[in-house]
User: What shape does this take?
Amino acid sequence: MALYDRDYNNNTANVANETTAVVATSVTFMKQTYQLLGASMVASALGAYLTMPYVATISQYKWFIFGFVMLMVFFGFNATRKNPTLHLMALFVFTFALGVMIVPLLAMIIGQGNGALIGNAFLMTSVLFGALSLFAINSKSDFSSWGKPLFITMIVIFVASLVNIFILHNPLMHVIITAGILLLFSLFTIYDTQNIANGAYDSPVDAAVSLFLDFFNMFTSILQLLGIMGDD
Assistant: This one.
């Protein structure tokens, strides 16, 4: 019995040690992810700040910038994944480009004399993003099944947005789509954060990209909605 008790205790200790190691690894991964997220926000802010004087040129080539961003999302990060240095560089190039892409929106807000809305939108986004992230981490619910419905909804909203931009030109439709984007990426924040906490990502860079896209789309949606209400 003494030998049995000793083996049982040793096995229990091993399980406890493995659990502690997994938790420590998860915490380290989350820390690295949020550090990269913060650095990505700085890169995006620099992209917007440094290119603000060239808003006319950026407006002229906005669809080329958008195309580059899409290429990075679907091909760029996959191509650099095996090289950690290039993968990290891709993150900052990508987030810098997103900062450049929203220069026309920022310039429009500032030109209307509503520059304070940018700071307000960032603060509101930060509070909402933080609350949703904490909820996702602490919730006992499983959100892993949300992926496919959220992706399908994103495609529907993207198509509706293009239709409105090129065909309908409907201001009310724009408001509805913008509110839909805000809701969609709020749900994506919950989904992505829980996936990161559960170890669904192999690289903190990929995890940071997901969270940055959530934050970025929430920020631009809130900024547009505040700008619309300010116009009213």
Observations:
- Residues 76 and 149 are 25 Å apart (CA to CA).
- The mean pLDDT is 91.
- Residues 2-51 form the longest helix (50 residues).
- Residues 2-231 form one domain.
